[in-house]
Amino acid sequence: MNLPWEIEQAYLVADSRSVRVTAASAGFDSSEGERIAVLFGQRPAGVACPLAHFACPFGKRHVSVVRVADLPGGGERLGFHFLVLDRQLYRHLGDPFAIADRFPSDWSRCGSLPTLSWTAQPLPERTLEQLDAILRQGDGPLLLAATQALVDGNRVVVARSAPDECLVRGLWALLPERSRVDLWPATFAFSDELRFHFWVTPLQTRPAGTGTHPGGSCYDLLEEEAVRNYPTGSYELNLQIAVESGDRVALRQLLNRRTPDETLRLAFYLLLGMLLVALISRLW
User: Fold this and answer.
1) Strand positions, DSSP E, the chain
2) 196, 135, 190: which is closest to 167 by C-alpha?
3) pLDDT of 147 strictly over 80
4) Distance from C-alpha of 155 to C-alpha of 48, rounded to nearest angstrom
């Protein structure tokens, strides 16, 4: 497959006064990186961020996968390690956490960095055993309900005092392949300015439709209680049945199913084709 395998990288440092790039590869867009780091939000007083990840668009043609962590030495400094890849490559890989895990961070780096490259191979297929372990060891009811809520086009926020890597990584493993490449996760974030589809926040949240977040963005997220009470849908139910019954074929079909938008487009093209055939038959 002819894909752009290069991945630009950079390290940024943020404190209460500024955001600055401390190290970057030649093709990294520093202004866009600084913009995203600012929109991640100001750290609330007393909140630690030992390790978090998020993914979001980086300009029009790229995606950023970002590791965030408190920097050594104390203080309130946050470090951001950006990995920026072409959107086509991101869609081919499909898992921001696997991308981040491939490239460890070295917070001492400064100056010029090399451009990274992904080896031309897909990530391993998700297995029934992996998903079964996620549902058994994690918060299964919340994971399944949140999966259905995201598939249905909702956005979800959960309040935690610290990053919840396990919850969000597990959730992303349960999503259909074609859905998760268009959704943006954050295992911790201090604002909703980046419009994550599922994010963990230490901020006090409010019921949907009652106001705005700090920073002015519209509050249209489902909170945890609403998600736990979310109506059971076909994807959630069939996923649970496939995992619990050990049906690998059904599970593979679910994970590779079309999104609702793709289904609508396919129906439109089929209808258009039928109309064209009918028109041509009349002319003949």
Assistant:
1) 6-14, 19-25, 52-58, 62-70, 78-86, 111-113, 116-117, 156-159, 185-186, 198-201
2) 135
3) yes
4) 25
Report the distance separating Cα 19 and Cα 17, nearest Å: 7
The H or E element containing residue 248 is helix 248-255
Query: What are the angstrom distances between the C-alpha of 46 and each of 152, 161, 202?
Result: 36, 10, 10
Query: Structural domain boundaries of the chain?
Result: 6-117, 128-255
Are residues 107 and 117 in contact, defined by beta-carbon separation less than 8 angstroms? no
How far apart, in whole angstroms, are the C-alpha atoms of residue 170 and residue 134?
6
> Tokens at residue 48, please?
């630690």
- C-alpha of 264 from chain center: 24
Q: Which residue has the tokens 């981040």?
A: 100
Q: What would the pLDDT profile of 34-54 be if each residue is shown by its tens digit? A: 999 999 999 998 999 999 999
Cα–Cα dist 88/179, whole Å: 15
Q: What's the Cα-to-Cα distance from 138 to each of 133, 147, 229, rounded to whole Å?
A: 8, 14, 18
- 11: amino acid identity, one letter: Y
pTM: predicted TM-score of the whole model, two decimal places: 0.85
DSSP H or E segment with residue 271: helix 260-283
In angstroms, the CA 68 to CA 51 distance is 6
* The one-letter amino acid at 78: L
Read off the DSSP letter of residue 155: -
- Is residue 150 within a helix (H) or strand (E), and if so which, with residue range? helix 140-151
Which of these ranges, 95-109, 180-194, 252-266, has the smallest mean pLDDT?
A: 252-266
Q: What is the pLDDT of residues 153-207, one digit of tens each?
A: 999 999 999 999 999 999 999 999 999 999 999 999 999 999 999 999 998 755 4
DSSP string for 20-40:
EEEEEETT--HHHHHHHHHHT
